[in-house]
């Protein structure tokens, strides 16, 4: 398996991130504008600490390949309330979002590897988190299949507001629990 590393997004990464967000396979699901002003608006708060989300550049064998967003659901009460209305969301649950920027790297299992590694990293970075919960629009088959191959299980289906207005509201909700139980630290 390849070596994955996560590091905090910086403003120096904005041109790379903008190029990823402009890729049709990313824009379709993330639906972010890629202008310098839009990237600053959408990602500057995570850098400055005014947004509790962790924006992380994902490196695979030393090369930047994508973005991982990670946050505690409790830091986003509206999103937490939407999910808690359709599924059990334990206190301290973390959520993930992700993208692979280069279209040549898609369809090769890299997303599954990245998610699997992000889950393991989350248990280290959030030692009190017992659960990861991820909602994905049902139309994004590639994403929810990668979640399943990475070991997350579907726990609910419900209508939630989609990121892209062209999508139907149906979302699948996935969950994985810390392997050794709530709050347990991995052995080793």
Automatic annotation (TrEMBL):
| Origin superkingdom | Bacteria
Q: Which SUPFAM superfamilies match?
A: Acyl-CoA N-acyltransferases (Nat)
Q: Which UniProt keywords apply?
A: Antibiotic resistance, Transferase
Pathway membership, UniProt: Siderophore biosynthesis; mycobactin biosynthesis
InterPro entries recorded for this chain?
Answer: Acyl_CoA_acyltransferase, Acyltransferase_MbtK/IucB-like, GNAT_dom
| UniProt-listed PROSITE patterns | GNAT
Which GO biological process entries does UniProt record here?
response to antibiotic; siderophore biosynthetic process
Q: Name one GO molecular function term.
A: N-acyltransferase activity
Keyword match Protein transport: no
Q: Name one Pfam family in it.
A: Acetyltransf_8
Which residues belong to any copy of the N-acetyltransferase domain?
4-179
PANTHER family associated with the record: LYSINE N-ACYLTRANSFERASE C17G9.06C-RELATED (PTHR31438:SF1)
Q: What does this protein do?
A: Acyltransferase required for the direct transfer of medium- to long-chain fatty acyl moieties from a carrier protein (MbtL) on to the epsilon-amino group of lysine residue in the mycobactin core.
What is this protein's name? Lysine N-acyltransferase MbtK
- Organism of provenance: Pseudonocardia asaccharolytica DSM 44247 = NBRC 16224
